[in-house]
Amino acid sequence: MAYEERLVDQTLDTWLSMLPAIVLEGAKGVGKTATATRRATTVFPLDARATRLSVDQDPEVVGDGDGTTFIDEWQLVPDVWDVVRREVDDGAPAGRFLLAGSASVMPGARIHSGAGRMVRLMMRPMSLPERGIVSPTVPFAGLLAGAHPSVSGSTKFTTADYVAEILASGFPGIRSRPGQAHPVLLSNYLDQIVDHGIPEAGGRVQKPVALRGWLAAYGAATATTASYASILRSATPGEDDKPSKETGIAYRDLLQRLWILDPLPAWLPTFAHLVRLGQSPKHHLVDPALAAALVGATRESLLRGDGPLRNDETFLGALFESLAVQTVRVLAQVAGAGVSHLRTRGGDHEVDIIVERPDHRVLAIEVKVATAVRPADATHLNWLEQTEPGLVLDKVILNTGPYAYRRPDGVAVVPLALLGP
Questions:
Q1: Same domain for 372 and 236?
Q2: Distance between CA 234 and CA 232 in Å, rounded?
Q3: Beta pairing class for 119-122 and 138-139
Q4: Least crowded by CB within 10 Å, which of 156, 193, 231, 299?
Q5: Are 50 and 136 found together in one domain?
Q6: CATH number (domain holding residue 28)
Q7: Cα–Cα distance between 146 and 396 in angstroms, integer?
Q8: Running DSSP on this structure, what letter comes out for residue 181?
Q9: What are phi and psi of 91, to 5 degrees?
Q10: Is 345 a member of any domain?
Q11: Residues 113, 223: one domain?
């Protein structure tokens, strides 16, 4: 399979030219190995048993040689971390080490933090523009610059096309297979995480069925701030013997260490003018295709509006928002910006995505699974701009419509398929 260029490549190549050790992090299957291998002179695949046993006997071997050494799934032999750290301390040149891991090390593992030596770079599944389906016409960088650029372009991408992309996933190895294979591959991916990924990360699952139920409930809560109690109730309907809160927290922590859960944090501005902001993250899995697989969603059921309902929103709306969040996170990382969401306590005001530059000014984004934008769709964006003058760089509504344009109130209406770097 030919390598598909990723937006993270730009950042990685820049960092390799300046820094001696870079750690690529992210869930299994996002493409870390392919991205790192093509830049490496020497590769140590620690997920291969023979290599792992050899390196475990003599971790210092990863410091031998010249060029760029890539250590894949480094967390399987944690001692290599300190070998790399010492090499960096001894003056390793730029681009000397690349490490990749599909899990963070166990809490309490006796390794140095790496602070000041190794820098971490998150890699997520393929964003919509990386999939090469449509040529984007609206640059994210221009919106984030705050110059209110003109917005234009059209697309024939339909709601059904977005559903197809949600179900195909952003995992390169899955989406490259025929569509009929996607449900099987996604289900197998989840099985592998439960049966092998968690034990490899040092976790124990005594009841795999209960964990799958908890995961399904979490997937059904995609794009919400649902409480732990409500997720637990959804995970075990009609059962008296429910997992304890401690068990649920343990599940959450394990899956976050594997980067399967990718919650969107609440925006907490540096100033105190905005009061009563909620602090609960919005629930997201690393890819909306996993949420769809966990609840058994299909193309037909999503287009009918079936699935877990919240107020007047469909499950498709939640999955589309998750796809938008995934895409914006990848674009924002290139720009060095953070991504979060805004919700006041009580839910009086919500903004689906807040992209914050280092200078703390923000790009405010609403997400609507709709082909036409109503006046009410911009209410919260305009509220934020009016509440904090000078804070909002630009206002955007991402939707499933055919045209990109600016409304009279300055809001940019952008079909998600037309949003690019």
A1: yes
A2: 5
A3: unpaired
A4: 156
A5: no
A6: 3.40.50.300
A7: 12
A8: G
A9: 100, 25
A10: yes
A11: no
What are 275-291's pLDDT values in tens digits?
A: 678 889 999 999 999 99
Structural domain harbouring 26 = 8-122
CB count, 10 Å around CB of 226?
19
Q: For the sheet containing 338-343, what is the strand order? A: 338-343, 350-356, 362-367, 392-399, 412-415, 405-406
pLDDT on residue 237: 64
Backbone conformation region of residue 343, classed left if phi is above 0, alpha if psi is from -120 to 50, else beta: beta
Q: Which of 122, 147, 181 delimits the end of a domain?
A: 122
- Positive or negative torsion for Cα 46, 326, 214, 346: positive
Asked if residue 140 and residue 43 are part of one domain, the reply reads no
Instruction: For Cα atoms 403, 409, 412, give the angle at the middle one, nearest 5 degrees.
Output: 35
Q: How many CB atoms lie within 10 A of CB 412?
A: 24
31 vs 29: CA distance, rounded Å: 5
- C-alpha dist (Å) from residue 251 to 243, 257, 288: 10, 10, 19
Residue 148: DSSP 8-state: -
Q: pLDDT tens for residues 43-89?
A: 999 999 999 999 999 999 999 989 999 999 999 999 999 999 999 99
Task: Measure the CA–CA gap between 76 and 53, rounded to whole angstroms.
Answer: 10
Residues 286, 305, single domain; the answer is: yes
Q: pLDDT of 371-386, one tens digit each? A: 999 999 999 999 999 9
- Give residue for tokens 């993270």: 8
H or E element that contains 232: helix 228-235
Among 251-260, 287-296, 310-319, 346-355, whose mean pLDDT is lowest? 310-319
Q: How confident is the model at residue 208 (pLDDT cuts 50, 70, 90)?
A: confident
- In this predicted model, what pLDDT tens digit does every residue of 121-164 receive, in sequence order? 999 999 999 999 999 999 999 999 999 999 999 999 999 999 99
Q: Where are the beta strands (DSSP E) in 66-160?
A: 69-72, 97-101, 119-122, 138-139
What three-state secondary structure class fits 64?
coil
Query: CA 361 to CA 340: how far, in whole Å?
Result: 13
Looking at the domain assignment, is residue 1 inside a domain? no
| Encoded amino acid at 42, one letter | T
Last residue of a domain, one of 91, 122, 153: 122
Total structural domains within the chain: 2
